[in-house]
Every structure is written in structure tokens, then in C-alpha cells.
């Protein structure tokens, strides 16, 4: 029995097995996905659409390295010999002086690299600095349904201004991005909160212990799943679920629980109404009222930008997980109904988020540099759209396939391929060793619009035979007699070379 990777961590006991006979198991690493043309095309369409919106808003493109030094990533500062918690890390080579190399890690988002770039180049940057970025990010976390270790994001950030209007512009940009991506109206909503609100409320209630405050945040974060009753239990002594498992609560007193519940319940209304409700709850908190003023200015700017109530709402229950958010936070929820192959409802929830992070650049410089941004979850949204009728990925059409009849005429086939490509049409010469029937089947599987054939007669007469595969299938479906099909050759024409290429243009344009 041969040793196979993934079956055991131990080396095989027997040394008699010839290494040449080893066959590794073909499998993708957990949490990493292979993507074929249609999936790649779907993600590219989203990135192109969203990037265009970012550029229209005046954001410039920036590309940073996939790797950053681990100590620059912030969220996952190394506290062990190997910083592999949450990130994928490798140790760099020793430097020219022979000192041990530093640990490098694949970026887990596009924000931490931006903070490093801004700190490194701040003197030469226009301020505020407005940039967008797209590309893969990697997280060393337990994979699961809809949770990959490698995925695509497309971000936009403004660094160098503390104006709430900058937060509002980022929100408007996100709303416009979802519309540009082709999502129907009402299929997403941006939920907006401000960390100052809850921080101010808890401080005014005397809840200053960091652990207790984190317990409150965790409780509020479960509002959608548990409702107000479940949140109330988690704010108090704790909650036992249906399985009997007990979750320890934040142990707030009754007055504090009532205040937090009133705060959370202030949502589900027009933006101006939510502001009025929150003002009543936060009347005794200067920090909370400052956060409320930020929300008010965000609301006024959203109104000026034409962002309606259906697209962006104030929701006090939104709690962003990353610890570096300091003010406004926002999360994009997908409302579109999505069902899997079995017809079962699939809930994707968040497909993007962001907020204000005024302390991230300061990690490098010691000086506070205000910043705000939004991350568009490209891979997650593409996966969600693939489960909807409107968003199912269209198959990617293949090139025109030139049939290879004879080894001696391969040069002519490639010459024709070059002429077709010069006309702006993708083309390839069949390079297998199969016969005519298999070549036609190959073109069909590639979803080619047509095949081009130059046999002996065509070469002698300067013509090309074109078979329109889509039209041929349609016409063949209407012919029941094989003899009639062979004689009629549906969708097939023989034309002088240049006319044949013009005919291909017509076929491709009709797709």
C-alpha cells in the first residue's frame, strides 16, 4: 500500500516502495477553490463595474504586494515564534548582515497594506489620499460553506480627512457599486452605525470593563438570529440554547439592559426618525451625542447624493468585527433570494462592509491619520449571484475552431487563424489528433460560434467553408430526415476567403 499525502502525517514504515511509483492524491487544499472561465468572467465583470464607479468618484488605483511583513498587518501581530494565527506566513531569508529574516504574511485584506503604504509615502501623497484596490486576500481560518481562505475583494478608501462627509461618500460609492454590478433595486441595503454611539452609552451607564463591553457587542451582533429576547438574555446572566449549551452573558444590571435594548430597537425607521430615537437614549452621553452628530451629517450628505432610504439605513445593531474601527461602521446586506441546486434557500448576509479607522496609520507614524473605507466582497457576491436566475454565470463562448484535415496543410490553417484574429475574432487551430467528428464535438464543447474549414477544394479555389454552430443546431432541430440534413448542411456556407471572414464577424456579433 503506497503512502498518500493527506492520509497520515507519518512517513511510511516500509522503505521498499520505489519513489517512482508514488502517486499524490489530486485534491485542492481546503478553503481554496478552482475557478473555470465562467466564474472568472463573473468576478471580472463585478471588478470592472465597481472599479469604474470608484474611478468616477475620483479614486486612483493602487496595487500593493500580496505579502506584507507580519508586524505591519496590525490585526494579527505575531505573539509566537511563527505568526500563523489568522494569516499564512513564511520567514524571509537572512539579510546581507546575516541576521535572521523577518516573517512575511499574505495580506488578509487591502486596508492594512494601504495603511503601511500611506505611512511610508505620506509626504508625497495628495491629501486626502483616495485610492481603490482589488485582488485576492488570504485568511488562515477554518473553511466552511461560503467561507474560503482565498477570495477577491475590491476596496475604496479615503485617508487624511475626519469629515463625516467622507464616510457618507464611501457609503454612496458602495451603493453605486452594487447598482453598477447589475443587482436589481432593493436587493442590497447598507446598514450604518457609529462606534461612538454605543461606546458613549456604555460609558454613561458605568459599563467600562473591556471584557463586559465586548460581551455587549457580541450580544448585539446576534440580534438578527436571536431577536430582542435572545439579546436581552445575553446582556444579562446568559442564555441556554436548544441543545442545552450555555453562553455566558455580559452581566449588565436591569437599567443598563433596558438602555441597551432601547438603543438597539431604535432602528427600523427612516434615517431622521432613527436619529430622533437615538437622541432620546443618548441624552446623557457627550460621546454618544458626538457620534449622533456624525450620523446626522452623514444623513444630510446621503440626501444630497441622492442615496434613498431603501439603499442606506441607520441601524444601531450593526457591530463590525475588526477592532480598528473608531467611528462610523457600515455593512452591506444582500436581500436577494438565492437558492442552491436543490432549491433550498441560501442566506449570504453580508457582501461588503467598512467604516472609519483613525488609528491604523498611527501604528507606523505615531500620529493619528483619519481614514475611512469600504470593502466589496467580490467572490461572495459572485457566488450569491450564481444562485439566482438573473445572475447565473453565462457560459464563456470559445474561439472559432479551424478544422485540421492534413498535417501537410497545418501552415495554411495557422495562416487562416492569424487572418481571423486580425479581424478581431478569437480563433484556434485544432491541435489534437482526432478525426472530423471529434473535432466538431470539441468545438461544440468549447461553445465555439463557428468552425472554419479549408480542405483541398477550398485551398484550390481560395475559399473557406464556415459552419455556424448555433444556427446549425437550430436548423438541425427542425430536420427529422438524416439525408435532408446531410444534403442541406444547415448553417454551412462556402465563401471567398475575405467574405468568409466578414461572415464570421456577422456570426460573432449576433451572439
Automatic annotation (TrEMBL):
The gene is hisS. SUPFAM superfamilies: Class II aaRS ABD-related, Class II aaRS and biotin synthetases. The keyword ATP-binding applies. Pfam families: HGTP_anticodon (PF03129), tRNA-synt_His (PF13393). The keyword Ligase applies. This is Histidine--tRNA ligase. GO terms for cellular component: cytoplasm. Keywords: Aminoacyl-tRNA synthetase, ATP-binding, Cytoplasm, Ligase, Nucleotide-binding, Protein biosynthesis. GO terms for biological process: histidyl-tRNA aminoacylation. It is an enzyme of class 6 (ligase). It catalyses: tRNA(His) + L-histidine + ATP = L-histidyl-tRNA(His) + AMP + diphosphate + H(+). It comes from Asticcacaulis endophyticus.
Amino acid at each position: 500500500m503506497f503512502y498518500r499525502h493527506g492520509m497520515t502525517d507519518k512517513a511510511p514504515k516500509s522503505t521498499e516502495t520505489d519513489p517512482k511509483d508514488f502517486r499524490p492524491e489530486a485534491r485542492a487544499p481546503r478553503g481554496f477553490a478552482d475557478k473555470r472561465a465562467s466564474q472568472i468572467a463573473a468576478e471580472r465583470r463585478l471588478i470592472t463595474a465597481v472599479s469604474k464607479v470608484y474611478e468616477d468618484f475620483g479614486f486612483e488605483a493602487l496595487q500593493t504586494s500580496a505579502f506584507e511583513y507580519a508586524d505591519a498587518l496590525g490585526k494579527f501581530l505575531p505573539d509566537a515564534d511563527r505568526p500563523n494565527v489568522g494569516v499564512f506566513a513564511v520567514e524571509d531569508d537572512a539579510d546581507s548582515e546575516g541576521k535572521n529574516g523577518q516573517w512575511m504574511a499574505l495580506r488578509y485584506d487591502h486596508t492594512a497594506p494601504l495603511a503601511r503604504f500611506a505611512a511610508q509615502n505620506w509626504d508625497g501623497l495628495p491629501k486626502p489620499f483616495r485610492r481603490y484596490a482589488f485582488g485576492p486576500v488570504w485568511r488562515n481560518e477554518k473553511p466552511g460553506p461560503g467561507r474560503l481562505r482565498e477570495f477577491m475583494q475590491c476596496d475604496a478608501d479615503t485617508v487624511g480627512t475626519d469629515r463625516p462627509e467622507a464616510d457618507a461618500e464611501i457609503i454612496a460609492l458602495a451603493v453605486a457599486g452594487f447598482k453598477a454590478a447589475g443587482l436589481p433595486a432593493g436587493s442590497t441595503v447598507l446598514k450604518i452605525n457609529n462606534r461612538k454611539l454605543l461606546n458613549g452609552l456604555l460609558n454613561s451607564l458605568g459599563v467600562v470593563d473591556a471584557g463586559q463591553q465586548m460581551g455587549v457587542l457580541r450580544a448585539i451582533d446576534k440580534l438578527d438570529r436571536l431577536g430582542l429576547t435572545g439579546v436581552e438574555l445575553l446582556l444579562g446572566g446568559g442564555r441556554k440554547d436548544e441543545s442545552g449549551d450555555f453562553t455566558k452573558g455580559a452581566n449588565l444590571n436591569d437599567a443598563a439592559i433596558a438602555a441597551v435594548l432601547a438603543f438597539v430597537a431604535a432602528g427600523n425607521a427612516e434615517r431622521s426618525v432613527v436619529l430622533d430615537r437615538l437622541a432620546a437614549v443618548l441624552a446623557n452621553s457627550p460621546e454618544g451625542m458626538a457620534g449622533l452628530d456624525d450620523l446626522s451629517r452623514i444623513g444630510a450628505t446621503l440626501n444630497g447624493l441622492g442615496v434613498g432610504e431603501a439603499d442606506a439605513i441607520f441601524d444601531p445593531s450593526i457591530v463590525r468585527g475588526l477592532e480598528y474601527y473608531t467611528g462610523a461602521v457600515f455593512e452591506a446586506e444582500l436581500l436577494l433570494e438565492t437558492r442552491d441546486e436543490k432549491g433550498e434557500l441560501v442566506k449570504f448576509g453580508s457582501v461588503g462592509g467598512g467604516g472609519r479607522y483613525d488609528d491604523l496609520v498611527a501604528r507606523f507614524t505615531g500620529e493619528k491619520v483619519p481614514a475611512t473605507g469600504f470593502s466589496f466582497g467580490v467572490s461572495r457576491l459572485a457566488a450569491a449571484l450564481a444562485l439566482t436566475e438573473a445572475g447565473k454565470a453565462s457560459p464563456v463562448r470559445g474561439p472559432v475552431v479551424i478544422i485540421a484535415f492534413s498535417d501537410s496543410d497545418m501552415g495554411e490553417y495557422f495562416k487562416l487563424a492569424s487572418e481571423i484574429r486580425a479581424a478581431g475574432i478569437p480563433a484556434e487551430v485544432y491541435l489534437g489528433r482526432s478525426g472530423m467528428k471529434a473535432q466538431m464535438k470539441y468545438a461544440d464543447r468549447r461553445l465555439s460560434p463557428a468552425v472554419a474549414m479549408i480542405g483541398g477544394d477550398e485551398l484550390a479555389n481560395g475559399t473557406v467553408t464556415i459552419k455556424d454552430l448555433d444556427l446549425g443546431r437550430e436548423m438541425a432541430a427542425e430536420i427529422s430526415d438524416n439525408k435532408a440534413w446531410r444534403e442541406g448542411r444547415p448553417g454551412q456556407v462556402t465563401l471567398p476567403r475575405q467574405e468568409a471572414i466578414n461572415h464570421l464577424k456577422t456570426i460573432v456579433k449576433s451572439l
